[in-house]
Design brief:
The chain has 301 residues and is an alpha/beta fold. The chain has helices at residues 8-30, 45-48, 65-78, 91-100, 114-122, 152-160, 186-197, 212-221, 250-254, 274-284, 286-294; strands at 54-60, 82-87, 105-108, 127-128, 131-141, 149-150, 177-181, 207-209, 225-230, 239-240, 242-243, 261-269. It is built from 11 helices and 12 strands.
Length: 301
């Protein structure tokens, strides 16, 4: 058999390769190598966490639209590869979309109803209520009404149509103009349950208005008007009534003394994962809760 003879060029190449391998090993050790060729980058948080990316669709409570938009805008500023779409339409509409699988979260200003849990379960959707903040419903009137307070019972009579003039409650001689939310609204359902009576109906004279700001605008211009809105929508042009001696403030909502306090929810199908989980954690964390306060709602912690 013919023996292969190493030439000087071959020997030089092998020597160069050996030196390169030794330099590579030294470099790995100097960078924190563990002896297996893996580089330790635990001190570099940006290297260990991939940037968030993807899309989320969120729909529901009109009361929560402004705060949800504020959450989305700041979160997207911090995560440029994320796109979040916010839509209103009411708590009921959002929950229906969650059951239909067309949204990642539904916004709700009321608790999910037993029938909605059942509808979800029937199609394999496990609705989980994630609390994002608390809110109080403010009862507002035009300052010309002469009203500053009302009892819960009398407020129920007003909205059932049993009391029709403010003079019957110590106010001015003005016919009461009832304003309320549309039936798809979680605020409509919550107010009915707590004030009107779960088994009673609103007066047929009540005007159903789609948005909080629509009610505020009407109350500002109509001396006899009364309406109910999320606390964050109250302006200086309307008067807020005490209910059973308590006005709806952040402190009254927090300590439970205000009768019209409620949870604000971002419902999901099962426990959120991936981008949805990251967004929910952010909303419930310091940055999201700072926006809760800025928007006039009550933080969860």
């Amino acid at each position: 058999m013919k023996k292969f003879k190493w030439g000087s060029a071959s020997k030089a190449a092998i020597l160069a390769l050996s030196v390169a391998l030794m330099l590579t090993a030294a470099l790995l050790v100097g960078c924190g190598g563990d002896g297996n060729g893996d580089v330790d980058v635990s001190d570099d948080a940006d290297a260990t966490n991939e940037a968030l990316s993807g899309m989320l669709t969120i729909e529901g409570s009109d009361t929560m639209v402004n705060i949800a938009q504020a959450w989305a805008e700041q979160f997207m500023d911090e995560n440029p590869d994320v796109m979040i779409t916010i839509r209103g339409g009411g708590s009921g509409a959002g929950i229906a979309s969650l059951i239909n699988g067309t949204v990642d979260f539904s916004l709700a200003s009321r608790d999910v109803r037993p029938s909605e849990f059942e509808d979800g379960a029937a199609v394999g959707v496990e609705i989980i209520e994630n609390t994002t903040s608390y809110d109080g419903i403010a009862v507002i009137v035009n300052p010309e009404s002469g009203m500053t307070e009302i009892s819960k019972d009398d407020l129920g009579k007003v909205y059932r149509g049993e009391i029709t003039n403010w003079s019957d409650l110590g106010g001015e001689d003005l016919d009461i103009v009832l304003l309320g939310r549309d039936s798809a609204s979680g605020t409509f359902a919550f107010f009915q349950e707590v004030i009107v009576g779960e088994d009673d109906d609103y007066s047929q004279t009540m005007r159903n208005i789609q948005t909080n700001m629509g009610i505020v605008t009407e109350v500002q211009t109509n001396p006899g008007a009364v309406g109910y809105v999320g606390m964050g929508y109250v302006t200086d042009d309307v008067a807020v009534l005490e209910v059973d001696g308590v006005v709806g403030t952040v402190d009254a909502v927090r300590d439970g003394s205000y009768v019209l306090a409620r949870r604000m929810l971002m419902n999901s199908d099962g426990a959120p994962t991936g981008l949805a989980a990251a967004f929910l954690d952010w909303v419930q964390g310091p940055a999201g809760q700072a926006i809760v306060e800025e928007e006039g709602f009550v933080p969860i912690n």
